[in-house]
Amino acid sequence: MKILFLLFPLIFLLIQGAAGNIITCRRKGGFCTIGRCRYPTRAVGRCSAVEPCCIR
């Protein structure tokens, strides 16, 4: 039960950090995708730990 008190702040920090990066990715004209960027696109940043920001 004590571990839940440690997990909640971590989850909130991850959500908060991901929201700001998605906005900056969209401002650059990019989009977030899971995994890697496919061929015609290239990575220009990170949306989260597993999502790169891809741009055409």
What does the model show?
Keywords: Signal. One of its GO terms (cellular component) is extracellular region. Residues 21-54 form the Beta-defensin-like domain. This protein has one domain (2-55). Strands 1-3-2 form a three-stranded antiparallel β-sheet, with helices on one face. The longest helix has 26 residues, at 2-27. With 56 residues, it is of the alpha+beta class. It has one helix at 2-27; strands spanning 31-32, 42-46, 52-55. Helices cover 46% and strands 20% of the residues. It has one helix and three strands; from the N terminus they run H-E-E-E.
Tell me the layout of helices and strands.
Layout: H1 2-27, E1 31-32, E2 42-46, E3 52-55
Antiparallel strand pairs: 1-3, 2-3
Characteristic key phrases:
56 residues; alpha+beta; three-stranded antiparallel sheet; 1 helix; 3 strands; 46% helix
Number of domains: 1
Broad shape = elongated
| Share of β-strand residues | 15-25%
Please count the beta strands (DSSP E, at least 2 residues each). Answer: 3
The largest sheet is: 3 strands, antiparallel
Query: Strands across the major sheet, in which order?
Result: 1-3-2
Radius of gyration computed on alpha carbons: 14 Å
Structural class: alpha+beta
Give the number of helices. 1
Low-confidence stretches: none
* Share of helix, binned: 40-55%
Average pLDDT taken over every residue: 83
Order of helices and strands: HEEE
